[in-house]
């Protein structure tokens, strides 16, 4: 495939244009990735701060609440309910051999 002089006048400038377009596309992709990375970092930091502040609020409300006795009663009831759920049934889920 040999190119003539007239064809080279058209082909060479188009290759430069194509190279510029590819370079711009690559730069745009890199910029988008950097922007997405920064947005992700900000989101993670925001979520970390929210979790830390809400955990502190829970500790204060449980310890210094005027209705502390009421809260401890609720906690005892929840623990009792959890223990009942965790109790194992005497024969359910176990294999019993009656053949013998």
From TrEMBL:
It comes from the Bacteria. Residues 76-100 are annotated as: Disordered. Residues 22-50 form a coiled coil. Keywords: Coiled coil. This is RNA polymerase subunit sigma. It comes from Lysinibacillus capsici.
């Amino acid at each position: 495939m040999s190119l003539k002089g007239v064809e080279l006048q058209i082909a060479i400038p188009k290759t430069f244009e194509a190279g510029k377009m590819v370079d711009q596309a690559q730069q745009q992709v890199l910029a988008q990735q950097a922007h997405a990375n920064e947005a992700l970092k900000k989101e993670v930091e925001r979520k970390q701060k929210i979790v830390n502040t809400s955990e502190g609020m829970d500790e204060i409300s449980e310890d210094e609440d005027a209705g502390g006795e009421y809260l401890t009663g609720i906690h005892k009831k929840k623990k009792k309910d959890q223990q009942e759920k965790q109790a194992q049934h005497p024969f359910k889920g176990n294999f019993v051999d009656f053949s013998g």
